[in-house]
What we know:
Keywords: Membrane, Transmembrane, Transmembrane helix. This protein is mainly α. It has three helices and no strands. The chain has helices spanning 3-23, 31-52, 58-69. The protein is elongated. The model has no long low-confidence stretch (mean pLDDT 85).
Amino acid sequence: MDKASVTRFAFLIIAVINAVLNLIGYQTIPDEFVNDLVAVISGAYFIYAAWKNNYLSKKGQKQKEVLEKHGLS
């Protein structure tokens, strides 16, 4: 397993534990904090995805040139 898979799995376990604790009446993490955290993580992920899916970096521009050279773009 790579780092990303381990991180996703850890977040899943924490979310499940939090959900179970909320079901039995314990408020472990304030809702405002969770909402803010989700907003920050989502924003960072969207920026990362936009960067990776465009030819903005020097490496990306070189990849685009190669694709155009071979008629794949």
